[in-house]
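To assess whether ligand presence alters the predicted conformation, the chain was also submitted together with adenosine-5-diphosphoribose. Input:
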Amino acid sequence: MKIEVWQGDITTLAVDAIVNAANESLLGGGGVDGAIHRAAGPQLLAECAALPELRPGVRCPTGEVRATAGYNLPARHVLHTVGPVWNDGTRAEAELLANCYWKSLQLAEKMGLRSIAFPAISCGVFGYPLHQAAQIAATETLAWQRSHREPQRIILVAYNAATFKVYQSALATLGQPGDVAPGLPCPTVEPRPAWLP
Ligand code: APR
């Protein structure tokens, strides 16, 4: 197995779970969070709002993850994680970002999921330097795949060609050569069977 890199819109993937780069309120936002809520429909926001608050305005602390259904998405579930806001690298940003990947994979395993797709968590509004974030994404997902059976399909989704290349080279530095061309349909993701709820 390899970590797959795919360029495109994560909301189109028919995987067991897509990961959302959310904020601590889990009440939606811009970027990939906005795209996921638009594609999933209003039931997603309702389920997020019903999740317990740990303190006012915080349903999911930074570095942690919460699961919901996927509703109108082709993905069955959404795992909402909250990446760190980049400051100067001295505020545990790397550890918190690593937690986003690792804890999402732990939750996916616990839920019995076999395929999961990640956006570039923290690399938009939250300002995490792309090369450093890609190294963390590659390190965590490869370490998971090398030590666990499921989820066996792990896809790093790049929204643009520059991110795609950075992911490929991050994986290459860790011993995995890249061979999936950008812009092509994700080759290993099956269409969602019609019988799925
Ligand atoms: N599919 C895949 N990737 C996407 C998509 C999409 N449809 N839309 C955006 N992206 C990419 C961005 O290009 C970026 O590389 O997702 C990455 C993460 O960017 P953001 O969505 O801005 O996430 P983040 O930096 O973690 O900031 C989170 O933004 O919208 C708010 O509620 C969210 O407050 C939270 C903050």
